[in-house]
Amino acid sequence: MANTSATIDIPAPPEQVWQLIGGFDSLPDWLPYIPKSVLSEGGRVRSLVNPNGDPIVERLVEFDETARRYSYAILQAPFPVTDYLATLQVHANGAAASTVEWSGRFTPAGVSEQEATRLFQGIYSDGLKALAAAFVRRVP
């Protein structure tokens, strides 16, 4: 099993950052790669489509409002991995700043561990950069 993570610091209180990203259906609000999200099964499954039109279906595994964290598993996606579990969390970084961490573990399928790790490292890093940019646009 492989794993990777990315972090980014955002100069805003964690409550404000969590308000933007904490909903399981909120990816289109800050991640340009995901233009649409549709919830099902009482909000526990999200169906996404990437820019190529490939479906991505994910199940919410854990949600902790107090810890500002949720974890999800991939049910269907065009990624060369199985047993995927990722976590998105907002940490306090002083009184008015946050550190956002996006991490995942997975088993490569048909590619090397290095290739799979590089793929998700890129997704997480690029996603968090988009989050920082989206957050700056939204917060006065």
Fold and architecture overview:
The chain is an alpha+beta fold and 140 residues long. Helices cover 27% and strands 42% of the residues. It has three helices and seven strands. It has a seven-stranded antiparallel sheet with strand order 1-7-6-5-4-3-2. It is globular and about 45 Å long. It starts with a strand and ends with a helix.
Total DSSP helices: 3
How far apart lie the N and C ends? 42 Å
The strands making up the biggest β-sheet line up spatially as 1-7-6-5-4-3-2
Oligomer: single chain
Report on the biggest sheet. Answer: 7 strands, antiparallel
So what's the overall shape?
globular
Rg from alpha-carbon coordinates: 15 Å
Which structural class do the helices and strands define?
alpha+beta
Could you give the order of the helices and strands? EHHEEEEEEH
User: Regions with pLDDT < 50 over 5+ consecutive residues?
Assistant: none
What is the arithmetic mean of pLDDT?
93
- Estimate the strand proportion: 35-45%
Number of strands: 7
Helix content: 25-40%
